[in-house]
Amino acid sequence: MRILTLLAGAAIGYVLGARAGREKYEAIRTKASEIWDDPDTKAKVDQVTNAVKEKAPGVANFIKEKSPEVADKVKETKDTVTDKLGKHHPESDGDTGSASSGGSSSRPQSYHGSSNVAGTPAEDLPTPPPTSGESR
């Protein structure tokens, strides 16, 4: 099946890229039709189609079952990261920067400095410089 796919891809690429003229195009098109109409090819296509039809409902059910678990894990991870960053960044203590809270921060509440993408401990991450009008 992989060889057939490779040959079909090569034939299509050649047809699209070749400048050999109509005769070469017709020869390739004829050969592609012969391959496509071959009973062995049709049997393999049917086999793959049936396998996909058979497995698709199971895959859909698996995804449906696992998606809440994945969502919960993402939320737990977000909460863990937020907690860790909050312990090391005083500006994340709930000060939204609004006049009613007494804060003067122009940063959105969700900003916690640099992210810990590379596994660097939060206390080793650089703290961004204050924005205009903000003091530390």
Keywords for this structure?
mainly alpha, 60% helix, 3 helices, YtxH domain-containing protein, 136 residues
Fold and architecture overview:
This protein is an all-alpha fold. Helices cover about 60% and strands about 0% of the residues. The chain has helices spanning about 1-15, 20-35, 40-90. It is elongated and about 75 Å long. About 0% of the residues are buried. Residues about 95-115 have low confidence and may be disordered.
Strand content: under 5%
- Average pLDDT for all residues: 74
What overall form do the CA principal axes indicate?
elongated
The beta-strand count equals 0
**Alpha-carbon distance between the two ends:** 65 Å
Largest sheet: none
DSSP helix count? 3
Low-confidence stretches: 95-116
Topology as H/E string? HHH
State the helicity in percent bands. Answer: 55-70%
SS class:
mainly alpha
Radius of gyration: 30 Å
Give the topology, please:
Elements (H helix, E strand, L loop, with lengths): L1 H16 L4 H16 L1 H50 L48
Helix pairs in contact: 1-2
Write a compact overview of the structure shown.
This protein has 136 residues and is an all-alpha fold. The chain is 60% helix and 0% strand.
